[in-house]
Amino acid sequence: MAKAARGSRKIQSKQRATFLRTQSGRTRMEALRQARQNRQLFRLANALNQSRGSESSIFEAALDAILACLDAPKASVLLLDPHGVMRFKAWRGLSRRYRRAANGHSPWAVGARNPTPFRIGDVSKAKLGMEITQAIHEEGIGALAFIPLNYNQKLVGKFMVYYTRPHRFSSAELRLAQTIANQLAVGLERKRAQAALRQVKDRLAEQARELERLVGQRTCELSEANQQLEAFVYTVAHDLRAPLRAMEGFATLLVEREAKVLSAEGLDYARRIGRSAQFLDALLMDLLAFSRVSKQRIQLMAVDLGATVENCVARLENDIRKKRGKVEAIPPWPKVLAHEPTLAEAIVNLLSNALKFSRPDIPPRVRLWAESNRNLVRVWVEDNGIGIAPEHHEQIFRPFVRLESDAYPGTGIGLAIVKKGIERMHGGVGLQSIRGRGSRFWLELPQG
Amino acid sequence: MASLATILLVDDCENDITLMRAALEQAGFKGVLLVARNGEEALACLQGEFPFHDRGSHPLPDITLLDLNMPKKDGFEVLEWVRFRPGLNRIPMIILTASGRLEDVDRAYELGAKAFLVKPTSVHELISMLRCFLDWSHYNRRPTIPETALGSVKTEP
User: Fold this and answer.
1) What is the ipTM of this complex?
2) Alpha-carbon A207 to chain mean position
3) With contacts defined as CB-CB under 8 Å, which chain B residues touch A228?
4) How do B6-10 and A438-446 pair as beta strands?
5) Confidence band of A54 (pLDDT split at 50, 70, 90)
6) Is residue A346's pLDDT more than 60?
């Protein structure tokens, strides 16, 4: 008995050893499988986190992961195209024929909210369309599962797992597959967002380049136009004045050297030619001055108004004496932000107008002073001359506008030069005037 | 009496030449006025080449009035040529031209011009201008004319 018992124990221990061996074998296999799954999941996570990877690298990592985790021989990834049709994007172990037949099949409606996995454990028992059933059969597929790719609870594609034989998909398997699918969906969206961002960036850069090109082109055109204008101005100064010189010169010579042989009328005509030539010359010079003030480079700096005004008065000393006028510059003079030559040109113009448009037999009295108001300085030039009717206050700042008769000679450009010059220095001009009593012109500039 | 014996006028504009002749006369100039109608003629005149080879009728000028904008050789080329010619470079070169573009003025002085005058439209102004430096040269037999002695230098764009 003891022997038998011993034998029986022996058998028992042998069985146990076998059992233990298989157990440990299974455990080892299980552990290996687990390790492989982990490795693939890790690789997937890595691929998803890599911002530079392509879409297909994510697909491949996801396929590797699902094949390893579910121990399946075939798998595929399909995405909804813009028309809502499922299209194969990546696959393992699927023939072209099958892919063509299965394209577009989906167990969920296109706009489905939060769709869930769908499994067919045994295709022979499933009721599917004839065509797809045949394709499945020919491909040697026994079971398949549809794992939705959801992003923001919206279907964006699907993940397919296929087995060659009928397979009972455990809920653990489906959960695992869904987890991989979710990761894939998130990764894909991120890739798309990145691609969209890159596209926007590229477009912005493209637009910036285009803008730069346009600016360059415009600058080129502008400088060309500027050069043309300069050439035009030079022509005016150089070529138009040559015949003028001749007209003026010969008319003068006629008057002065040929007076003896000319009739009184002839003499008068020659004088008129001379005067007209001189006037045309004055017009050309003024046109040049206007064009200069319009296009010259203007650099603003703090300018001592007192010194500028003093210089301007000095420049007109001759006119003041001729008209028996009096000019009074009343301090204090603040500093202004201006381009000194342009400012001086404006003040000289205002001053010489104040002297010129005096009333007959009333010597001009001109007063200048400045007023500071917040950040602005207003310079006033007041005269006791003929004044300007209110309806003309606007137009007198336009070029070549002359209100007065030939009793007040001039080309009518002076105030246009004043306005253009002051405006180019970011200032303004204006006037107050009563016809027959006098005028008060002002110009305003930022404080220096 | 002005002591300038010979003036060389280099100008391509017939009208201006005629006016200058009249203005010089009016200003009291009694000497010889030589006329060259472009830069090449000016060089020929200064070197005593044909048709200026007879120094009796074409003496070496005491002063040259030089236009800038001319055919063949322009005024700048004349200045460049004269600049390092011993003997000739002592003759003062006075620019007398239509426009006083600042870059032209600068360039002319760099090339050795003694003065830069802008042709006045008024013949009276021209006469005053000429009288001024004829008077001035009365005191200087060989004038090296300072810029300020020749009246205002106008500049325009």
Assistant:
1) 0.70
2) 8
3) none
4) unpaired
5) confident
6) yes
